[in-house]
Amino acid sequence: MKTNPINIEALEILDAIDRRGSFAKAAEELNKATSALSYGIQKLEEQLGITVFQRQGRRSVLTPAGKLILDEGRKILNSTTLLAQKAKEVATGWEPLLRIAIDSTQSYPLIFQALSEFMADHESLEIDIIESILSGSWEALEQDRVDLIIGSPGPVPLQKGYRAIPLPPSEMIPVIASHHPFAKFAHNAEAVQSALPDLRRVVAHDTSTVNITRSAGLTMGKKVLYVQTIDQKIEAQLAGLGIGHLPKHRIQSYLDNGQLIKLQLDTGTDECFLAWKISNKGKALQAFTQLLSSKLS
Question: 3-class DSSP state for residue 54?
Fold first, then answer.
């Protein structure tokens, strides 16, 4: 089998020459003799049957073919560096991938700020995030589709081997769009209770697909509009399509500018948890849960 002349060493030589601007400076960086670099490039050109560098005055510049090899080669160099980091992490107990389900009522800015801080120290770690609603996160954890769930509503399922840490509850506000026909009665508790059966509810589906689904807030009524995410629910209610509870921190700006109006109904506070399986001993999971619990508690 013929040996591929484009190997890691050849790519490192090309990369160093291009970045440092000369064979001599590249040789210094790679701790090699300048003649060794020249021989490596000459050998590469001979085996490929192309010219990689051409002289322009005193400088050697890449030919179009050489530039192609360098551009694509840098992707390979980055991949091999990442591979080496991942292999080292796995060997020391760090899992290469962390799968996270975030309940849609949670504060995404706080979570992603914590994630940014964490990943600054673990750049090779892959993160896979999904959004969950109600029982969906517990089901995903039970089925090993995720390693960590953030903000999942209680109660914590018993005898499942979960470690659960309470998080501050999310305040859920019943709201209506300011241009909705009923909005003018929003502050009249008696009128709200009287009209409630006839007002369309906007309901976000429980993301559970196997276990028994749950409902929360204003779900019972003659007319219901179902959506898949809290973002969709917010937009549907802003459009005046119905009423429903929404997390206060997600809609504060709309309450402040008057696009949404609080209905004279009881507000709710949902207990929620940070949870994972006790059997999961991954170091990335342990480190991130410690950081996140300190940020969110």
Answer: strand
d(CA 202, CA 274): 27
What is the pLDDT, as a whole number, of residue 175? Answer: 95
Euclidean distance between CA atoms 40 and 277, whole angstroms:
52
* Cα–Cα distance for residue pair 107/105, rounded to 1 Å: 7
Q: Output the six-digit token pair for 125.
A: 């770690």
Q: Walk me through the domains of the chain, giving residue ranges and CATH numbers.
A: 8-91 (1.10.10.10), 97-168+272-296 (3.40.190.10), 171-269 (3.40.190.290)
Contacts 24+ apart (CB under 8 A), 217-221: 217/172, 217/174, 217/244, 217/245, 217/268, 218/174, 218/243, 218/244, 218/245, 218/265, 221/196, 221/197
> Three-state DSSP class for 186?
coil
Q: How many whole angstroms separate alpha carbon 77 and alpha carbon 71? A: 10
- Is residue 178 very low, low, confident or very high in pLDDT (cuts 50, 70, 90)? very high
pTM for the whole structure: 0.65
Instruction: Report the half-sphere exposure of 255 (CA within 13 A, side-chain side).
Output: 14
The candidate with the shortest Cα–Cα distance to 276, out of 178, 164, 186, is 164
Q: Which residues, at least 6 apart from 187, have a Cβ–Cβ distance to it below 8 Å? A: 261, 264
Mean of per-residue pLDDT scores for the chain: 86
Q: Are 150 and 101 in contact (CB under 8 A)?
A: yes
